[in-house]
TrEMBL record, chains A, B:
CDD domains referenced in this protein's UniProt entry, alphabetically: YtcJ_like
Leader peptide range in chain numbering: 1-21
Protein's UniProt name: Amidohydrolase
GO MF term (any one): hydrolase activity, acting on carbon-nitrogen (but not peptide) bonds
Organism: Novosphingobium nitrogenifigens DSM 19370
Lineage: Bacteria, Pseudomonadati, Pseudomonadota, Alphaproteobacteria, Sphingomonadales
Residues in Amidohydrolase domain copies: 75-555
Annotated keywords: Hydrolase, Signal
Superkingdom as given in the UniProt entry: Bacteria
A Pfam family that the UniProt record links to this protein: Amidohydro_3
InterPro entries: Amidohydro_3, Metal-dep_hydrolase_composite, Metal_Hydrolase, YtcJ-like
């Protein structure tokens, strides 16, 4: 009999089926958010060798027994709280990794403290050709002078070290860095800069202002090895915080290649919902439509990220009325309404999801109007994403409601931005426009799906702080008392959904992960705090004990080096 | 228990009896080249459900029986010749597909003949937004005038059609093309061009010289959908010629994305050994080292393609002595010797294979010297590839021998270039330099591994013509009698190896495909001619009856549209 590829693949898939070896997770206080937004409690669940959940057991259900007819592996939750792996609905994976790869000296209290940290950091990263860092301040150290290359050499002599001062107006180099940069006694001092020198003219260690460029240009640009390391570093940092999935907002071709290298080498464990950095990158990577889910649901390019305006702090956010603290500007739009519509059409016509950065009320109004216009052409389940949705004029809330009813709308918001921005936002907007600022409850009320994230590395990718802020609109110090515009707080179900089921829905992933339910991937965390019942202060201090992705443990607080 | 993906897989595997879903191929005259270069004949072979060969049976061996303990599927070779799938050691996959996607009118004998072909081509490609072609010549048609848009409209009215004349100095458009380009009676005639017009001034159909640009700029640039179509088209064309693998020489990021889309969608069947278009593309795609073999050995980026000089025809080939027919030039080098060494080092230090285009004797001399220098630094099995190796000064042959003994060297040559270039090469080189031109036998004698290819689309990717030329150094007409410098002919074993085992070796793929042997992929073809015994004329006319890749049929002459 002749055979076709089709029949061969069918047989091959049967061959690929795992041996019957299931894992039971029990002795847990399990909590997951159901599609209808209610809390589902469970006492145990079973997942198979491919890391897919087979059965979820409610309290009182009869559990399977060990053995061929039951389960072969067992995880004892020791009575702890088990939640679905958390999802950051808006972050930047590679930038997060790169931020973690540099040394932060902002907390150092003395030169010796700094030298010790530098030495430890270099020892912890033997593969790094250069040690790069920032944040030092000799005044804070009570040193009364700049530190020297010789002092830095005593900590790290084998490689160049280049550390920027807290104000970025000076840099501290070791001898290897000066050698790599070719800076000697005969190097002239650049215009607008200064080179601290020894008696014999050789560089002493610190370069000021324009002179920093002499070393900057010798620092090697990131290599693909650096990219691979940055990804692994980001994955590990997210895993220890209980984050098992993320929407990568603005994936470049280079980022994508890095994700694929990890997947091809079977070392990608984070679930990445990639949104291309613009429509050209989208088309180059994914082509005529979204990619399939790759690597057992760990990577997909399903959409595009566009920018409509800038940020509030720099007064780049596009406002309907002038800035309260700078009446001569409304901010700026990065795209005309026609350009925005064309770019969104280009993506939507090929079935890509569209995610648009919109901060100011004018940007959000224009975006919502454009979405409603496009929704007459592009039908079906679109889940238009508004990234940040920071200030939306209450007059535009009905637009949200209409889009929610026709195509769907996701408000992709970052709770911690509210506390970080509060005083700045009040200054920029004045009292009359605050009703529509960070208006989580109102946007949910209007019909938007709330997906929560961190915008990492802009903020730490810590979902526990995010949940605590979502419940209180207070910062770590408890300010302001009672919360800022507390009517926009959300309840604990909405907060947890924002970091699990709703964040998965926002990426068209709700049938794959984001809940503990049959047929979904076994992504889960064990924690020491119940976000449904604990105080916001306690939630903020949550310790993640274990993180599992696809039935594999990627973090264990008792052996943090763990990994896959 | 609830049914899940996992449990359905288990059920399927229970029914599939995977251990015995093998396929026996018998009743064949099987021939494959052994690693030692000798011919191995076989009467049958067995491959498993993953498309991997398990056992090869020599004539007289006892064959397994059908059933649970033997094989489940059977392919009757009907006594025909079975060979390993052929490999093109130097081609351009995407350009080959794009060349096939345009309509070739060079063979048309009349306007009605042309219109019929245009109509059929449009009907065969309903998804093409534009119909693009070339090669028409109204003189050859005996038309005595230019064809008209109205005539073209009668063949294709629903889409723009744009057909360049054989000399590319004129283009023939239909009304839809004029509409798309906005060309009307009021369109001024561009400087240096002409617009054939009707009495009322409307364009009549043909645009001459500079006026062609008016339509050219309206032709949409290729989309990712076009890329996907070009790849599928190239795969189908190669499959019908018996080609199951190819070295893609100069893979761009866009090409790579297209290959991956096909692999991700499980529609890539051609085996592509990708060599990146330069070291930057190499690093962007593959990162710190060659990619793994992807998609069951169907795609890998294992190396980089560099260019050291140009081509002989355009006198871009870099020669030691001046051109015989243009004594004021030696041709040109595209890289300095330092640049060449640096680029080769950048690739070699990360374990990438290096393939360098070298045509002229100076280019080949410089390349061989550079390889020998690098081989002191980069040890082990390197298989340095010289692409084309067209003219190598016999004084440099000892370099080939030394490199062969230390790192290994592949002469990646295209037999058909010899017949296409013969007269031109004699003119360019004069009589004294021909000894080192297209010197297949001498380079093999010197120790190089001969890998044969077509440089498709520069030449048709037809390995049968290549084998016939390799045996004769004669063109299709049999010229020159006795063959051109017949001392450089190779025997049939070397010719077949050049398109199978040696071509796989040249891409570090010899343990995966290129032979019929246990553990290798079941890539094979059934043909009507035995290249070991037939005359070169007969080999040239070989018909491929079936082409199989990885145990799946991708071409069947009895149902050419069939395959996957």
């Amino acid at each position: 009999m002749r055979r076709t590829i089709g029949s061969m693949l069918l047989a091959a898939s049967a061959l690929a089926a795992p041996a019957h070896a299931d894992t039971l997770v029990d002795n847990i206080k399990g909590e997951t958010i159901a599609p209808d937004g209610t809390l589902q409690s469970f006492a145990a669940f079973l997942f198979d060798d491919s890391g897919v959940i087979k059965t979820v057991y409610r309290p009182g259900d009869k559990l399977p027994k060990p053995g061929r007819k039951g389960y072969q592996f067992h995880i004892d939750g020791k009575g702890r709280v088990l939640l679905p792996g958390l999802i950051d609905a808006h972050g930047h994976v590679m930038q997060t990794g790169y931020a973690l790869l540099t040394l932060d000296l902002s907390e150092t209290t003395s030169l010796s403290d700094a030298l010790a940290r530098i030495k430890a950091f270099a020892a912890a990263h033997p593969d790094r050709p250069w040690i790069i860092g920032s944040g030092w301040n000799q005044e804070r150290w009570g040193l009364g002078r700049f530190p020297t290359a010789a002092e830095l050499d005593s900590a790290v002599g084998d490689r160049p070290v280049w550390l920027e001062r807290a104000d970025y107006h000076a840099g501290w180099a070791n001898s290897a860095a000066f050698k790599a940069a070719g800076i000697t006694a005969s190097t002239p001092t650049p215009e607008g800069g200064a080179i601290e020198r020894l008696a014999d003219g050789r560089p002493a260690g610190v370069l000021v202002d324009k002179a920093q460029g002499l070393v900057d240009k010798a620092v090697p640009p990131p290599t693909p090895r650096d990219d691979d390391l940055a990804l692994t570093t980001a994955e590990a940092d997210l895993a220890r915080r209980g984050v098992t999935g993320i929407a990568d907002m603005g994936t470049s071709t280079r980022d994508w290649m890095t994700f694929r290298r990890a997947g091809d080498a079977n070392r990608l464990y984070l679930r990445i919902m990639a949104y291309a950095a613009g429509t050209d990158t989208m088309a180059e990577i994914a082509g005529p439509g979204p990619t399939p889910w790759l690597y057992a649901d760990r990577l997909r390019m399903g959409g595009v990220k566009l920018f409509l305006d800038g940020a509030l702090g720099s007064r780049g956010a596009w406002l309907k009325a002038p800035y309260a603290d700078k009446p001569d500007t409304h901010g700026l739009s990065l795209l005309s309404e026609t350009q925005l519509g064309n770019l969104m059409s280009r993506a939507a016509m090929d079935g890509f999801q569209v995610a648009v950065h919109a901060i100011g009320d004018k940007a959000n109004g224009v975006l919502l109007t454009t979405i409603e216009d496009l929704s007459h052409t592009y039908h079906g389940d679109r889940r238009w994403r508004v990234e940040h949705a920071q200030i939306i004029d209450p007059a535009d809330w009905p637009l949200v409601t209409r889009i929610a009813a026709n195509g769907g709308i996701v408000a992709s918001m970052q709770p911690v931005h509210q506390t970080s921005d509060r005083l700045m936002a009040e200054a920029r907007l004045g009292p009359d426009r605050l009703k529509g600022a960070y208006a989580w409850a109102s946007l949910k009320q209007a019909g938007a799906v709330l997906a929560f994230g961190s915008d990492t590395p802009v903020e730490l990718p810590d979902p526990w702080t995010g949940i605590a802020v979502a419940l209180t609109r207070q910062d770590a110090s408890g300010a302001p008392a009672g919360g800022w515009r507390p009517e926009e707080r959300v309840d604990s179900l909405t907060a947890l959904a924002g970091y699990t089921s709703a964040a998965a829905y926002a990426g068209f992933a709700e049938t794959r992960f984001g809940r503990i339910a049959p047929g979904l991937r076994a992504d889960f965390i064990l924690v020491d705090t119940d976000p449904m019942t604990a105080s916001p202060e306690a939630i903020r201090k949550t310790h993640v004990l274990q993180t599992w992705i696809g039935g594999g443990k990627v973090y264990d607080a008792e052996s943090p080096a763990g990994g896959k």
